[in-house]
Amino acid sequence: MHIGKKFLVFIAAFCIPAILLVYWGMGLWFERKASSFLEQSIAHELANINEQYQRSLRRQLLLSHIYAGPLSSLSPDAQASMDSAWYEHTHALGLHFYRYSDAGLISFGVGNDYPLSPEMVSALVNGTEDVAVALLLDSGPLLITIITQGDSRVLVSRSLSEEELTRFGRSGFVERIRLVDSRDGGQYQIPVAGIGSASLVLDVSFGLRDVSSPAIQPDRMVAGILMMGILLLALGYVWIRRSLVVPLNGLMSQLGNMDPSASRYLPLSADGCAEVRHFSRVSNKLLAEIFAQKEQARVILEGIADAVILTDAKGDVLYLNPPACRLLGGQAADFAATSVSGILGIKPSLLDRFLKEQGQACKQISLRFAGRLLQCTLSAIEDHQHTRTGALLALRDVTAEERLKSELRRQAEEDAVTGLPNRTTFEARMKRLASGQETVALCYLDLEQFKIINDSCGHLEGDRMLCMVAKTFQSCLAPGELLGRVGGDEFGILLLGRSAHEVALLLKTLQQKLSMQVLESQGQCHRVGVSIGVAFARAPLPPVGELFKDADIACVAAKQKGSNQIHFYDDKDKELNYQRNAPKWALRIAKAIHNRELELYFQPIHSLHGGSPRKRMEILLRIRESNGRILPPAQFIASAERFKLMPEVDKAVVSMAMEWLAAHPNFWHDHCLSINLSGNSLGVEGMESFIVEQLQRNGIPPACICFEITETTAIQNRQRALDMLRSLRKQGFAFAIDDFGSGFASYGYLRELPVDYVKIDGCFVRQLASNAKDYAIVKSIHDVCSVMGIETVAEFVESQDIMARLEEIGINYAQGYAVGRPKPLKDYAPFPLRQPA
């Protein structure tokens, strides 16, 4: 409904009825209040009239007493004279005096106008009390009073005219008062005393016509007021219409004519009251913000690289940004009101379901358009009632990205040179292919002489050789078997369902074919060989990682056997098991160093001739498990050397040995500890400074320490060993060569090494008592060392016969089970020096 009509309806249906209801209610209230006031006034007036009547009775009684008092004391003549005087004065006032005695009722004065009948008189004079009653006679109403005076009673009567009675009431309010029988009276009556059973009342008539007649005037006044109110309402409606309704209608008209798709912002203009102008300003601010957001959205949609299409609830195109026009090959007007499903080839059911269902607000689909792969994101557009009014399609050309992903996936899964699966892909496919097989053979192939090709001919020629090798290997495999490049010059082959014999025959065939592959480069011919390690397993199969580890260890064993060898992993091979468990031992050693779980043992080194005043012993390293078992030293020492952990191990041993010496200063003057230094520790940055720092920190004399280094280590690291030995010798430490005689050219290097002791390798000592060759070798070593001023120590002395032969040769010290077994250093007690035989 129009707002002007609403105001008219409001005035006609609400304001005017409200005014009439108020008038009617006020009239009822006024009438009730007036009626209540009138009743109160009438009741008050009736009481006043009754009081006036009673007062009149009392005055008449008083007159009776005034007359009767002196009368009783007078003589009869005087009484007659007095009666005549009273009559003359009271008759004009309507008063009549009578005396009642045995002779009857006698009137005062002359004449006898006595109006009472004997029966009335008899009823009045009986008794002795004063009597005041009203009497209604044909001649009119009388007021009679009777008093007793001596033996006689005096009766006074006075006529009550209607005018006198009316004067009892208030003038202008009481219209008439009459003394009548109660049955003849009107609405307002005042009972009065009468004779006998007579029921007399004062009938009061009020002048209510004067009271009710003004009630006609307020109706006319109210009607005038009502008309003035309606006129004011009309004027108010005209004012409201001009200041509010008309400006609002103008605003509504401008809002209704506003085009949402207009490209230019047009503000609203409005006159009228301040509220309308404020509404106009707020609306303009809101419209400006909406227009700014619309322009911002337009700039964003036109500026992004993705194609954006806006549809209505039926799926017809409403808007396309420039990238969408370029993608579709046309202008926005060419696709207006066209179904987007038909343009892009989207299933209509898919789009219709998305627009109608109140579920997923965003959905991604892939589609092909004009030979391109597009990623389409469908986003629902909803109104304030969460009803879908359309959809926004964001199209992104992902053709190049998918190609790049495919290429990266291929590069991540395949070797770039040979096209074979790389190690990661090989392991993943191996898990899938090996599942459910009875037998599996994993072959680890390491090319030989391949580095010569890379170094002499370059990596391009090396890549050619790798491709030739890959084709050769692939030609020997059956369908379903797997070949991959798992390293620089390493390949992996997975053979399925073959026996160990069949695997060996196949690998020999593979080696033969590979030997026939020749790479010609720069006028030279190059061939490669291959060492193969095989991990053969039957169901249930071990994990892939374990198979790879076994095949790798077997390949190392094959290379140790010579060129172009094949080796099958055997879990009963002790040496291979050591290599297989080397990583675990390395981790265990690192943990033991970190948690200080290393334990030091000692083995005594006894002087055979008693020439040395010091008690010597070699410090040995052990690791104790949580269950108390001591780990075999050969295993973890070999693992530590393989994984370059020996510098840390040696530092731990040096630190613990010096701390033990620092805790036992009573051993400083006659003990010497032999501590082994690994070849990996010689020349390591910081090792020399660490040893000197530990010496200074513990405050022990350097003569208490002798470092043992192996002969092969000293030879392999000759210059570094020499520099470190010379520097530490200046600090006062002693040095010994361990396992002397097992290497080559030992005497030549012995001449250069600044050592104090030579420990003869135990392989020459074990059979010394029964083998003349070993005897001659040990003797020659001792003779040479004696000439050079170096003392000798024999290792692995396990019997007294060997001890006797060593003394015969002149060896200075002996070490072995015949002298003493290794024991914990913490349990050390000084052992007695062995006396020579």
Automatic annotation (TrEMBL):
GO terms for biological process: regulation of DNA-templated transcription. Residues 582-836 form the EAL domain. SUPFAM superfamilies: EAL domain-like, Nucleotide cyclase, PYP-like sensor domain (PAS domain). The keyword Transmembrane helix applies. It holds the Pfam family EAL. Keywords: Membrane, Transmembrane, Transmembrane helix. The chain crosses the membrane at residues 7-30, 188-208, 220-240. Residues 438-571 form the GGDEF domain. Residues 293-329 form the PAS domain. InterPro entries: Biofilm_reg_signaling, EAL_dom, EAL_sf, GGDEF_dom, Nucleotide_cyclase, PAS, PAS-like_dom_sf, PAS_fold. NCBIfam families: GGDEF. This is Diguanylate cyclase/phosphodiesterase with PAS/PAC sensor(S). It comes from Shewanella amazonensis (strain ATCC BAA-1098 / SB2B).
